[in-house]
Design goal:
Order of helices and strands of chain A: HHHHHHHHHHHHHHHHHHHH
Distance between the termini of chain B: 90 Å
Largest interface: A-B, 42 and 49 residues
Strand content of chain A: under 5%
Low-confidence stretches of chain B: 1-20, 22-43
Distance between the termini of chain A: 47 Å
Largest sheet of chain B: 6 strands, mixed
Strand content of chain B: 35-45%
Shape of chain A: elongated
Radius of gyration of chain B: 24 Å
Strand order of the largest sheet of chain B: 5-4-3-2-35-34
Structural class of chain A: mainly alpha
Number of helices of chain A: 20
Number of helices of chain B: 7
Number of strands of chain A: 0
Mean pLDDT of chain B: 92
Oligomer: heterodimer
Shape of chain B: globular
Helix content of chain A: over 70%
Helix content of chain B: 10-25%
Structural class of chain B: mainly beta
Chain lengths: 397, 572
């Protein structure tokens, strides 16, 4: 844990652990405790942590059930790297009051650093769902993920990182950790599948997906076909094959057939319905396209692509007002849809709304550029060129 | 019993039957004749070609390093170089890729003279047209109005203007014309297309030059389709360069007005150029396709000034906003409404876009509506040419096909492909004819440039196609219908001598067609024969109306079909 983050944690613990800490006792003892507490605060302000810890220790000696003193002493010892000494204090504080989630998180981290992984996991698991402060929760989650990874419990690590990603979607460390966990999961699943079902339809589907990812379309299609021979009813398989065929030069007729098979197996397959709409549009079969997109929009009203497809058909049918509404809706659903912005700009231009058309063109250009860059980046990552000169290998123009 | 012995036993039985039946061979012969007839009828589409060889092989010096120019060569021109009335053929050719010099005879540009029957003789040496550099584009035009068509050749880091001396020879006048000036900002340019047009209607042909991207063999990246497998790089690895406009001074020299005219302000990665008067104002506009960049549409404002209006006109991108690999282009009226439409080609899964001119300053994308989207999606094309190949009164589109990449797996599509003609079924609805049109008579190739013209005087438009590292192809049109036709060879007097920019309207049998004189078509190529019209079953045109670039309008009435009509511009 970084120093700055420790400091945040420290102050959070000290300030937020404002507990009723003075039990009934003789005035002179209480005065001593109060004096030590004041002194501790002074030392804290002066960043004299050793001395502050001594003051809290004095309070603990006078009043062993003082939760505040136990907690603060534990925290200070923790920050000084004295985990073994901190743990009993933190644990004692928790015995006195069980809902000190930050203390529990710190205890878990301390236990982890002293090799007590079992207790560490228990304490961190208890603390993680309860800690409210964002930074402390992130630290707790990351420590927990580290523990899960050490014990090979990737499923729990994935659940935890999922929660953290929702909390902080732009956190660099979380994103990296997510990448590692999901990659490990992929590898693990792949190896497991190879062991338990090396000749299964799923295995061939998986191989096909990996091949497709690396641009080996023909081999991917071949593996999808093998998978289908093994299990023609496997959910999603017809769609996956259709997608590969649809992107290849000569497989469009078969792609159409595969999308239809996917729909026959799963009548709620909105993605296949939408693709069949695309194909019908390309064939200029407006009625078929209209029916397909209508059903797609019914199945998933929030699918921007289906709304755009429908708008395209309506434009061809001369129903530009309806098309315009659908495109505006599509942009609400997906503001980054370059296609929606471009088509809307065309409609605006034709109805004389030049300024709005221009605005949509600008939006189009912004998102188009952004997506092109992301595509390039993704391609670079996937293809891994053998030579270093190019930063992309774009074999296709 | 294995299968072979079973078949042999069957043959033995059949042989015994034949021996016992004297009428067998007669019946068999009749059956075979019927079969052949039925097969040929089935195979003959309304547009059909037969292959005719010509002794030229495009050599772009393809190397394992895959330098960009290697895959972009191949301009073709069809024109009558010696005014004998027969269309001749000119091919540009590559050079050594490192030196950009024609270090071997195999790199020579070539001129072939037509004897009028479709036989071609190599006259390159006498003509002095072998060339010196890595040549790409060719544009034909009589820039000095002397009645002999001249040749502009654009290439990698060097362009040439060849003046036709009228005696079968040409003179390289590049330096004298002022067309050899390097670009001070962008350095040496790579020209892949060009068009002659009169931008200010002063009767002199000006020159528009399409430049691809900035290329330097020493700094070019190495790109791979997969580890260890080198492929041609995506255009994004190269910087855009500006197109150029040279104004004809009328004394054999040209003035670079790229900046003043508004052309230079829009650098791109140009591939093709189409010219037409899109709005009917009498001024020629210029459409330029770009490779993976927005197309450019230079609208002529008059006074040799242009405004780039691709977005407002709706031709910058496809209807879906697709940024595609724009290749060659043609810009002519496809639906006979009097407004020139645009078609250009691209790579597989990008479709061959078709923009219909609405006549109000805008175009609409009718790629899907015309059937072209579905038909062209699996194809990669280089050079589209709009012309009426079956003389039915509707202009069709011939597309040379082939991918940029050599390696099939790198593209998801075959690198080598057959050519295809898209037959116009009327009103810009199309049918793709490939094998049906006889175009699979040759193996698939990486086809590049193309030019058209009636090479054998039969009234049908033939096509000359180049292909990388492969023999060129002449596709002689033997379409079955005996439709009638008319061609117009214009001679401008006040307008430029070639009549480039003249709009021709033909009314025959109640139908009206339009075309205009433009020699710029397809990829890197030039079709400079007479302007062709198919008349269907009509044996004459009721009315022919020519609107010359000078503004003069000329009418001819009751023009008999099946002839080349020479029309001289009347005094204004």
């Amino acid at each position: 844990m970084r120093t700055r983050e420790f400091a945040i944690l420290l102050w959070a613990v000290l300030f937020l652990a404002a507990l009723p800490c003075f039990p009934q006792s003789a005035p002179s003892r209480q005065q001593q405790i109060a004096s030590h507490a004041r002194q501790a605060q002074e030392y804290m302000k002066e960043n004299k942590l050793d001395l502050a810890a001594s003051e809290f220790a004095a309070i603990v000696a006078l009043d062993p059930k003082n939760v505040d003193a136990r907690g603060n002493l534990g925290v200070l010892l923790f920050f000084q790297g004295k985990y073994a000494e901190a743990i009993p204090q933190l644990r004692a504080a928790l015995m006195l009051q069980s809902n000190l989630w930050k203390i529990q998180a710190l205890l878990g981290i301390g236990e982890k650093r002293t090799g007590d992984l079992k207790d560490a996991r228990g304490d961190l698991e208890k603390a993680f769902p309860k800690v409210q402060e964002r930074k402390i929760r992130v630290e707790t989650g990351m420590e927990l993920i580290d523990l899960y990874s050490q014990t090979g419990d990737r499923g729990k690590a994935a659940v935890t990182i999922g929660i953290l990603r929702e909390m902080e979607p732009t956190n660099e460390a979380i994103l990296y950790s997510a990448y590692r966990i999901y990659s490990d999961l992929v590898d693990e699943a792949l190896l497991s599948l190879m062991v338990v079902a090396p000749k299964s339809a799923h295995m061939h589907e998986l191989i096909a997906l990996e091949l497709a990812k690396h641009g080996h379309a023909a081999e991917a299609i071949e593996n999808f076909r093998v998978a289908l021979q093994i299990d023609p009813q496997l959910p999603g398989l017809h769609y996956e094959l259709a997608e590969m065929l649809n992107s290849s030069a000569a497989g469009r007729e078969e792609a159409e057939s595969e999308y239809k098979k996917a729909l026959a197996l799963n009548p709620f397959d909105e993605a296949s319905e939408c693709r069949l709409g695309d194909i019908a549009t390309q064939k200029n079969d407006l009625k078929e396209a209209y029916d397909r997109y209508t059903r797609a929009v019914q199945l998933r009203p929030d699918d921007a692509e289906a709304n755009i497809g429908m708008a395209k058909v309506l434009t061809s049918m001369g129903q530009t007002e309806k098309a315009e509404q659908l495109l505006e809706h599509a942009i609400q659903l997906d503001p980054t849809s370059a296609v929606a912005h471009f088509r809307l700009s065309t409609l605006y231009r034709r109805t004389g709304r030049t300024a709005e058309a221009q605005h949509e063109i600008e939006e189009y250009q912004e998102y188009k550029d952004m997506k092109e860059k992301l595509r390039d980046l993704y391609h670079t990552m996937r293809v891994e060129p053998a030579k270093e000169e190019p930063d992309d290998t774009g074999p296709q123009k | 019993m294995n299968r072979a012995s079973f078949v042999w036993r069957g043959m033995n039985v059949l042989a015994r039957i034949v021996a016992a039946s004297p009428v067998f061979w007669t019946a068999a012969a009749l059956l075979a004749a019927f079969w052949a007839l039925a097969s040929s009828r089935e195979a003959t589409a309304p547009i059909h070609f037969v292959y005719h060889p010509i002794d030229f092989e495009l050599d772009s010096c393809e190397t394992p390093e895959r330098h960009a120019p290697e895959t972009m060569a191949g301009g073709v021109a069809v024109f009558d170089y010696n005014n004998d009335g027969y269309l001749d053929i000119f091919f540009t050719n590559g050079a050594d890729i490192r030196t950009l010099k024609k270090t071997s005879a195999k790199y020579s540009d070539r001129l072939f003279e037509n004897d009028g029957k479709g036989n071609f003789t190599d006259v390159t040496e006498k003509a002095g047209l072998a060339g010196v550099g890595f040549d790409n584009a060719v544009a034909i035009g009589d820039y000095d109005n002397d009645g002999y068509k001249d040749i502009f050749v654009g290439g990698v880091h060097g362009n040439h203007l060849y003046h036709n001396n009228g005696d079968g020879t040409f003179t390289d006048v590049t330096a004298k014309a002022g067309l050899n000036q390097p670009d001070s900002q962008y350095g040496p340019l790579w020209t892949v297309g060009a068009a002659w047009l009169d931008v200010n209607n002063d009767g002199l042909l000006d020159l528009f030059v399409v430049n691809y991207f900035a290329w330097d063999i020493d700094t070019e990246p190495i790109c791979e389709a997969a580890p260890g497998l080198v492929a041609y790089c995506h255009p994004k690895f190269y910087k855009p360069t500006p197109n150029q406009l040279f104004l004809n001074n009328g004394d054999g020299t040209f003035r670079d007005i790229s900046a003043q005219s508004g052309i230079r302000a829009h650098p791109g990665k140009g591939m093709g150029v189409g010219i037409a008067d899109y709005g009917g104002d009498g001024r020629m506009d210029i459409f330029v396709t770009n490779d993976r960049m927005y197309n450019l549409f230079f609208v002529n404002l008059g006074g040799a000034k242009f405004a780039e209006l691709a977005f407002p006109a709706g031709v910058a991108l496809t209807g879906n906003g697709g940024l595609i690999s724009g290749m060659g282009v043609d810009f002519r009226d496809l639906d006979n409404d009097g407004y020139p439409d645009i078609t250009f080609v691209a790579l597989n899964n990008e479709t061959f876009p078709l923009f219909r001119n609405l006549g109000d300053g805008e175009f609409e994308d009718i790629t899907e509506r015309s059937g072209m989207a579905w038909l062209s999606a699996p194809m990669a094309g280089y050079s589209p040419t709009i012309a009426d190949f079956d003389n039915d009164g509707w202009k069709d589109i011939f597309v040379t096909r082939g991918h940029v990449q050599l390696l099939d797996y790198a593209t998801g599509a075959p690198g080598a492909q057959p050519n295809t003609v898209f037959r116009n079924l009327g009103g810009a609805k199309f049918q793709a004819l490939t094998a049906e049109a006889g175009l699979t008579a040759q193996p698939p190739r990486r086809h590049r440039g193309s030019a058209i013209g009636d090479l054998n005087g039969d009234g049908r438009l033939d096509v000359v196609v180049s292909a990388l590292s492969a023999p060129a192809e002449i596709w002689m049109n033997d379409s079955p219908d005996d439709n009638h036709w008319l061609e117009f060879a214009l001679e401008g007097t006040k307008s430029n001598r070639d009549g480039i920019g003249a709009r021709i309207k033909v009314v025959a049998g109640g139908t009206t067609q339009y075309n205009h004189v433009s020699f710029a078509a397809g990829y890197a190529s030039s079709s400079a024969g007479p302007t062709h019209f198919g008349l269907g079953r009509n044996k004459s045109a009721d009315l022919v109306e020519i609107r010359w670039p000078s503004g003069i309008t000329q009418q001819l009435r009751n023009v008999p079909a099946d002839q080349i009509v020479k029309v001289k511009e009347p005094p204004g």
